[in-house]
Write a structure and sequence with these properties.
Blueprint: E1 3-6, E2 12-14, E3 32-34, H1 41-50, H2 62-76, H3 79-83, H4 85-104, H5 107-137, H6 145-170, H7 180-209
Antiparallel strand pairs: 1-2, 1-3
Helix pairs in contact: 4-5, 4-7, 5-6, 6-7
């Protein structure tokens, strides 16, 4: 039985033909290549002999070396999965704090929620940059439906974060005072949790769904 590997996410399909669509990243059939289990010694020798000789290298610039180092550290140490734990863990906690404030009228929890959202906003550049590096390096910048949804969820997260923080600064009593605006604010925070959850779910699907058994 043949094996076919998705060149986007690394998912391996066993069958006579590759699937019409990758079940992990939604890449189409054309993105699959057949996996060759072994290569004979003759083929290896021929490929080595046919390879062109080394070409004189141009020393990279300082900025290029710095970028290459950042990319290497990001991919080697899995910095993006580490960074996404910040919004994934803190934003739901902030929503709980806001609900406690709305229900019990305890303003201290509302202040804690504000600081939590600000901290997440500060961390977002690293989350986005490390995610971009992983997308370009590991998934070759593929723009399949999974990545479109993931990128859209990330943009939605950033916009909602900015909106919630600015709204709270302009109207400090938005959560502590009973009003229609308070429920709209809480609803927006709930949408923020949903956007982060979608991005996290798809990220987990890409990581764990592409593992080879």
């Amino acid at each position: 039985m043949k094996k076919w590997e998705c060149t986007v996410c690394g998912y391996v399909h066993v069958g006579d033909e590759p699937p019409e669509e990758c079940p992990v990243c939604s890449a189409d059939k054309s993105m699959f290549v057949e996996v060759v289990e072994e290569q004979t010694a003759t083929e290896t020798t021929a490929a080595t002999e046919a390879a062109p000789g080394p070409q004189p290298a141009v020393p990279p610039s300082l900025s290029a070396r710095f970028y290459a180092l950042a990319v290497a550290l990001t991919t080697r140490h899995h910095l993006h999965p580490i960074m996404v734990h910040t919004p994934n863990g803190i934003v739901p906690m902030a929503l709980v704090f806001l609900l406690i404030t709305a229900w019990f009228g305890w303003p201290l929890f509302e202040t804690a929620a504000l600081y939590s959202l600000v901290f997440v906003l500060i961390s977002m550049p690293l989350v986005i940059c490390t995610g971009y590096v992983m997308w370009r390096q590991r998934y070759r910048g593929a723009f399949t439906p999974v990545f479109k949804i993931k990128i859209s969820a990330s943009i939605t997260t950033l916009v909602l974060l900015l909106g919630l923080i600015i709204w709270r600064v302009v109207q400090p009593d938005i959560v502590t005072t009973a009003s229609t605006g308070r429920w709209i604010y809480l609803g927006a925070c709930l949408l923020l949790v949903g956007a982060i959850g979608i991005a996290g779910h798809l990220g987990g699907k890409l990581v764990f769904g592409s593992r080879k058994d």
